[in-house]
Design brief:
Chain A has 165 residues and is mostly beta strands. Helix content of chain A is 6%, strand content 33%. In chain A, a hairpin with a 2-residue loop joins strand 10 and strand 11.
């Protein structure tokens, strides 16, 4: 099955149009319920309910232990180029944080795939609100070499916060 | 600086509108030049040229060694729910591959940040075409635990291909 019929770019404006391929089911109804800040654990169970018309696109996904979910901060309005994240008391550029107030309100979460039931993926590690629109799912294929990974202001904030984090 | 003025969802249709925050500069002018398939190495140097109006959003990004770049397959038209990737000779669901022919033509690349010059990020590991629109940049914060990572059909294809890969 293929789809050639739908417009994805308005060439006049340079904007791109994206549609939900499905929705997240999560235990979180309000952003205040989502663990945030240093040491926050994301191990909540949830599911990714993909629209029936896209179900064939999930073929063979069961073989991957982890998936990259790209989704929309659909309750976020506007953006801030500088903001202070819950994990620090200093402002940082939006592209150096996971803030929801981004020029494009795109969120990204790596989840563990627990099982698949037709168009529904049972996953662990959701940090999205219930009802969040999903734009894309990709297999998680490789890690960054740990000895080369530097985590900037986040590592500094963890150091300042001390060993309890 | 913040922006509240721009529409991001057409509530009537359920589609979301996304705009380029900048463009990729890469050595690749045609998709045929981009290394693909098993064992493909992505170590090309390139840059992410962010629009001047978003430059403040890059504050403190220099501290991160790796960035997640979310971009648009702007030369891809339409989608296939099943396709055979360059790394295998068997078809897989689009959400289990990195195919450009996706319901939403969103690409994702993890790059190494080499340096920043104002609104321009020099990076290593680009696999995008020159001129690719960038939608978002996020800091790469953590790896999946290697002992828990399974890579599905890709690991199987590598095994079939033998030790030369």
């Amino acid at each position: 099955m293929s789809g050639e019929d739908e417009k994805k770019e308005d060439h006049g404006s340079g904007w791109f149009s994206m549609r939900p391929i499905g929705y997240v089911r999560s235990p979180y109804r309000h952003t205040s319920e989502i663990p945030k800040g240093l040491g926050a654990k994301h191990d909540a169970d949830g599911s990714l309910e993909i629209q029936a018309k896209f179900e064939a696109g999930l073929t063979d996904i069961e073989g991957f232990s982890h998936l990259i979910v790209i989704w929309v901060f659909s309750r976020s309005e506007g953006f801030d180029l500088l903001g202070t994240p819950p994990s620090d008391n200093r402002p940082h550029g939006v592209f150096a944080t996971r803030s929801p107030r981004r020029p494009n309100p795109i969120g990204l979460t790596v989840v563990e795939l627990v099982s698949r039931e037709g168009p529904v993926l049972r996953v662990r590690g959701v940090d999205m609100l219930d009802g969040t629109p999903i734009l894309d799912i990709k297999p998680y294929l490789s890690n960054v070499s740990p000895e080369r990974l530097r985590r900037g202001w986040l590592a500094e904030a963890e150091t300042r916060a001390g060993p309890s984090q």
